[in-house]
Amino acid sequence: MENSGEQFDVIVIGAGIMGSSTAYQTSKRGHKTLLLEQFDFLHHRGSSHGESRTLRATYPEDYYSRLVIESSHLWEEAESEIGYKVYFKSPQFDMGLSDDKSLRAVIASCRKNSIPHRVLDQRQVHEEFSGRIQLAENWVGVLSDLGGVIKPTKAVSMFQTLALKNGAVLRDNSEVFDIKKDDVRDGVFVCTRNGESFWGRKCVVTVGAWMNKLVQSVTGLVLPIQPLETCVCYWKIKQGHEEEFTIQGGFPTFASYGEPYIYGTPSLEFPGLIKIPVHGGQRCEPDKRTWSPAPMILDSLRQWIRERFGDRVDSTGPVMTQSCLYSMTPDEDFVIDFLGGEFGKDVVVAGGFSGHGFKMAPVVGRVLADLVDNGEAKGVELKQFKLGRFEEKGTGNVKEFEDQVTLADFPSLSD
Q1: Which residues, 6+ apart, have CB-to-CB distance to 27 below 8 Å?
Q2: Distances in whole angstroms, Cα of residue 36 to Cα of each of 15, 175, 293
Q3: 8 Å CB contact between 252 and 93
Q4: pLDDT tens column, 160-190
Q5: Mind listing the pLDDT tens digit for each residue in 35-72?
Q6: Model's pTM, two decimal places?
Q7: Which CATH class is domain 226-328?
Q8: 3-state secondary structure of 74
Q9: FAD dependent oxidoreductase domain: which residues (predicted)?
Q10: CATH 3.40.50.1950 fits 7-47+153-224+330-392, yes or no
């Protein structure tokens, strides 16, 4: 490999939101950074495209709330550097049965992390939203100020532009098929199918749904990260009610706990349409997808829309759908760790963001930059994101509440 091409301080593989945020952070610190993408930049084949993602700090797990709070500040910091907005603030509204364990854990986490919130009963919710959201008598709502909508494709472009401004090298259509340890100088060689090879002092792998494929080909290690094909659905707001469901009209981002877990954003990207999908999807190979929603998912959404929004939203069926990929771990927690083995701390992997990581991309990028800088992340406990948790217990972290997405038969972590 002595004929390898350019040399870099950091090579980031995968230019979705996590890789682009990482390249922004490492280049901002003065590291010579290379960002590689297997497809075109800003493609629609992975997990970082589309028109909206939710930002919320209301999590059952304490550690996510803290990460979201930091990320909300980092989103604004990047916006100030680029000169345009990707994060549009709104309240966040969570709802579910009053005895739902996950929702009760959300309330407890809000209290523990001093996140301003109000717990509302059926009548109070009706008054708060002027009848726009209707809860059953045995449901409660949790309203918090920290919420909003992030523009995904625009956000990825923002981080790539800022990385480029900071001196990073960006190359798309450069699929990586191998990572080799440099036994002479330390560091690694990264090889692409274009026949190019690059040397990096450190390497960060953020390839989303392709994580298992790449890591297994390089090390033989099977990560318990399952790609899912999910479908984002947009529903028609009935005439005369369009403004009621906008951010300007005071409508929140929202999540509905239970089976299924449903979430959504105010009407923003497409006038007169509101995004309401199910959190979950169908197992898939990332290069082989149906590109269409499962009928039973649509049935549950229709019923939920009728019950929550009454005659204000047409529940007949979605007027538009968009396919997207999740990278699910058994416990729905992230994987952020050193690859280990012969690579030691030269290669960091970050994946398994399980359909809820986008909002935390700025802090994930910061953490990954810390790890390649000095081997540890400042101010963040990463034990819940370690690869080793699957060796100790195949299902990973133990939770005292229900999973939002139910999956069985995950591959075990083995070589």
Answers
A1: 33, 162, 163, 166, 167, 168
A2: 6, 8, 31
A3: yes
A4: 999 999 999 999 999 999 999 999 999 999 9
A5: 999 999 999 999 999 999 999 999 999 999 999 999 99
A6: 0.95
A7: alpha beta
A8: helix
A9: 9-371
A10: no
